[in-house]
Design goal:
The protein is mainly alpha-helical. The chain is built from 17 helices and no strands. It is found in: Nucleus envelope.
Length: 278
């Protein structure tokens, strides 16, 4: 190919290889053609990162792999692989400073954690919303949250609501997403309330009964893991003004109001005692 060392001819030859599926031939060009091949592959990201690795341009490979992972909408496994390769390429690179690298690695790890959450959703829950557990697409954080907390998860319990909150705190840290964060936080906790029948609590010690609800069991998990509940939970007023709870007839129910207020007082007291011990 060096006999025809013009960019136009190189592009013609590269396209010929590409169109005929001769990718191994395309990717095994001599060093003298690497620059031309890089230009040609700039519009073929699925191959560009391989060429960048060959040239030891690891940061460029990372950048391409991260972009491909962000765009992947068909297969969760492919996104998982792309993120792992992106992390390796970044670690092999020396083109970013330490603080930037740490932040990027943290972002990738968060995305990998979201993938793990999706992989552990029960098969029957995925199938109930027509998602193929074997070849499923990446789901958005909001979709993951809904699968944990909504009626499609018939066996949902406090661990599911805690997982939904974990997804929320991973995916909605950006201040520009604050409104979405607060709306989803309220929805998660409200759905936790709606799992149990608060309106008809009949017991000598209703507060003890309330402690056995999914809502307060989720609170206990959060306390045990050291979360600041003042930030982790919506305000009491948010619950009493929540449309979902209004529709369920709870916000005007004296028994529910009493149990929720008493529970909140206990939560704040417990949190305060734990802070003092620390």
């Amino acid at each position: 190919m060096n006999l025809f060392n013009t960019e136009n001819f190189s592009d013609f030859a590269f396209k010929w290889y590409m169109d005929r599926g001769k990718r191994s031939k395309l990717m095994s060009q001599p060093t003298t053609q690497h620059e031309n091949l890089s230009k040609f592959l700039s519009s073929h990201d699925h191959l560009k990162w391989l060429h960048d690795i060959e040239r030891q341009s690891f940061y460029q490979a990372f950048d391409t792999l991260k972009d491909l992972a962000g765009k992947e909408a068909l297969y969760l496994e492919r996104k998982k692989t792309l993120l792992s390769l992106a992390k390796l390429a970044l670690l092999a690179s020396d083109e970013s400073d330490e603080d930037e690298t740490i932040q990027i690695l943290e972002d990738i790890t968060n995305e990998q954690t979201l993938i793990t959450h999706q992989e552990t959703i029960p098969v029957e829950v995925l199938q109930s919303v027509s998602v193929d557990p074997v070849e499923m697409p990446p789901l958005s954080p909001e979709q993951l949250i809904e699968l944990y907390i909504s009626d499609v998860n018939r066996d949902r319990d406090e661990s599911d609501f805690k997982k939904a909150l974990d997804v929320l705190h991973i995916a909605y840290t950006d201040e520009t997403l604050r409104d979405q964060y607060e709306a989803l936080r309220l929805r998660i906790w409200s759905q936790a309330i709606l799992v149990d029948d608060w309106a008809n609590v009949q017991a000598d010690d209703p507060i003890l009964v309330a402690r056995n609800t999914v809502f307060f069991k989720t609170v206990e998990i959060a306390l045990h893991e050291g979360f600041d509940l003042a930030l982790y939970m919506p305000s009491l007023e948010s619950f009493l003004n929540c449309e979902e709870l209004k529709t369920a007839g709870l916000t005007e129910n004296p028994s529910f109001q009493f149990l929720l207020r008493a529970g909140y007082e206990q939560i704040l007291r417990t949190q305060s005692d734990m802070d003092v011990e620390i």
